[in-house]
């Protein structure tokens, strides 16, 4: 099992779109669970999942993909139990709230570690133009590894030295209009290893984001298959 976190600094950048499309593509060949931790619950609403986490039908299976709605506050034991049930899957894609608005980041992270014994925070970073916003977002995300280290050392009484916990595997720049040129060199100044994916601006994705095809993320799906 590998968990991949879809993260951003703010809302409205396309996390729901990328999370759903990526999970759907992976589910064609792998067993995939998609966790909807977002504040908007866009994916859950689209699929008609109305019951809150742990109450009634808070999950739905669709074409080989299981989607689970997470609501907070929730009991840690319940969260750990849900994550343990997910160990039967090959991949977990998690749509997270914007990092600055995620009041339950620590609870979710520690619950996942207790369930999986996995400390690596694989992630896909969502960005949108202009350059100033991309630059600011990546700059703010640089200390995340230290932030993860502090949480783990506090909750698990263990010392972490020289370990890269925060592992971005992809940077997705969404809603790129024709006249905008992505400054790949500038992005690489912050994170050199992740593949950089550009998604052109498509009005159809704004109107029906979960229906239209999104071939641009195929390389990300293939890379995650290789990690499993």
Give a description of the structure.
The chain has 228 residues and is α/β, with parallel strands linked by helices. It has one domain (2-223): Rossmann fold (3-Layer(aba) Sandwich), CATH 3.40.50.300. The protein has helices at residues 15-26, 42-47, 76-85, 105-116, 131-141, 144-156, 184-188, 203-207, 218-227, and strands at 2-7, 32-36, 59-62, 65-69, 91-95, 121-127, 166-176, 195-200. An eight-stranded mixed β-sheet has the order 3-4-2-5-1-6-7-8, sandwiched between helices. Strand 3 and strand 4 form a beta hairpin. Helix 1 (15-26) packs across helix 9 (218-227) and helix 3 crosses helix 4 (105-116). It is globular and about 50 Å long.
Defining traits:
228 residues, alpha/beta, 8-stranded mixed sheet, single chain, Rossmann fold, 9 helices
Mean pLDDT metric: 93
Give a quick account of the main beta sheet: strands, pairing sense, barrel closure: 8 strands, mixed
Judged by helices, strands and strand pairing, the structural class is: alpha/beta
Q: Globular, elongated, flat, extended or rod-shaped: what is the shape?
A: globular
What's the name of the CATH homologous superfamily?
A: P-loop containing nucleotide triphosphate hydrolases
Return the CATH class. Answer: Alpha Beta
Please give the alpha-carbon distance between the first and last residues.
7 Å
Number of domains: 1
**Which residues sit in consecutive blocks of at least 5 with pLDDT less than 50?**
none
Number of helices: 9
Secondary-structure element pattern, one letter each: EHEHEEHEHEHHEHEHH
Task: Give the fraction of residues assigned to helices.
Answer: 25-40%
At CATH level 2, the architecture is 3-Layer(aba) Sandwich
Radius of gyration: 17 Å
- What name does CATH use for the topology? Rossmann fold
Quaternary organisation of the protein chains: single chain
Q: What is the β-strand count? A: 8
Strand order of the largest sheet: 3-4-2-5-1-6-7-8
Q: Which range does the strand content fall in?
A: 15-25%
